[in-house]
Design goal:
Number of helices: 14
CATH class of the largest domain: Alpha Beta
Helix content: 40-55%
Mean pLDDT: 96
Order of helices and strands: HHEHEHEHEHEEEEEHHHHEEEHHHEH
CATH topology of the largest domain: Aspartate Aminotransferase, domain 2
Number of domains: 2
Largest sheet: 7 strands, mixed
Low-confidence stretches: none
Distance between the termini: 22 Å
Radius of gyration: 22 Å
Bound molecules: pyridoxal-5'-phosphate
Length: 394
Amino acid sequence: MNQKKRKQIPLFDIKISSQTKREVAEVLTSGWLTSGPKVQAFEKGVARLLRVKHVAAVSSCTVGLHLTLGAIGIQPGRFGPVKEVITTPFTFAATVEAIIQAGAKPVFADINPRTLNIDPDEVARKVSKRTIAVIPVDIAGYPANYRILNKICEAHSLLLIADAAHSIGATYHKRTIPNLCDAAVTSFYSTKNLTCGEGGMVLSRHKKLVDRVRLMARHGLTTGTFERKAKKSVLYDAVIGGYKGNMSDLHAAVGLGQLKLFKKNQETRTLLAERYISNLQPLSEFIELPIIEKGYQHGWHLFIIKLCLSKLKISREKFLALMASRGIECGVHYQPVFALSWYHKSFGLSPQHFPNAAYAGRRVVSLPLYPSLKKTEVDFVCENITDIIKKNRR
Ligand SMILES: Cc1ncc(COP(=O)(O)O)c(C=O)c1O
């Protein structure tokens, strides 16, 4: 391969549309920067897109998860036994952090090695008298097994709260994630399929839950600044202890602009993912590709391959370094939380307790995936993977 003409392909590349720039300019000109009309319009737009009745925009998915757990009755330092929330160890630290911040104990259930999502059989084994909720994560945008998880939650009167940070574009039998659980929390972080720069949203069919999240996100106050100005009413009450978790109009304006492109961007992501799959199929002895079962629509936030390490002479780290040396930036989603020192120490977690997550954590590689990625760039990534595998197969 000619090293001089080498391309540089980043893992993520975010393009901000001209519509987005106009939306942001409008906010800056208006002088109203905090929660106001743009947040309201963005909430409406996302609610329509995902066909959900009740939504509350918040400052991040992490805050949204924390407040949702607060809204269902978990409180830090609350008298009585600590409530437990079952989740996956194969996730970003934020999922677990939100459970701890809310005042509950995270209890981990191993994953299905094929989908990388929480294994419902493991969830059922971890339910105790103290369990209050289950938080699956739709890894890469592939929906967790909501059909079985709902059955377990119904049988034990638990709430099912989706960490839908990756899965805004996903469906199961045409139902969006918030319609498959009690509440879903999305992320609008910079690299996500729909971005505000930073932000999140709680989406649910339960009005009371969403109203409580909204209240908690503005310090437990009966009204926010924008409502007080609109109603010409200065005074307010704090009816519960709250937090600071509102989304600003500046962030919502970015989201509103990007929302216009969302469907088209999802189509492009799907086409690119299909191209990866067809290009990499001949390497199936060395690489496991994402699976898509009947009825599932993948949200394609990430394209994760799993290296078959026993068939290769190199480690995942060496593979990443070889890809980087060819100008291709790859990622790792995720190092399981038990591999992170603070979580490992604080919860006494050991990889032996989660063999599937431990194995996945050693072999997953995320390939570049974003709407501005060209088909020829996908082909270039695949040619390089093929070449590396050919030179390093056992
Ligand atoms: C699975 C998962 N959950 C939660 C989060 C946290 O999202 P945010 O940055 O919006 O708080 C992320 C962010 O990348 C994530 O990947």
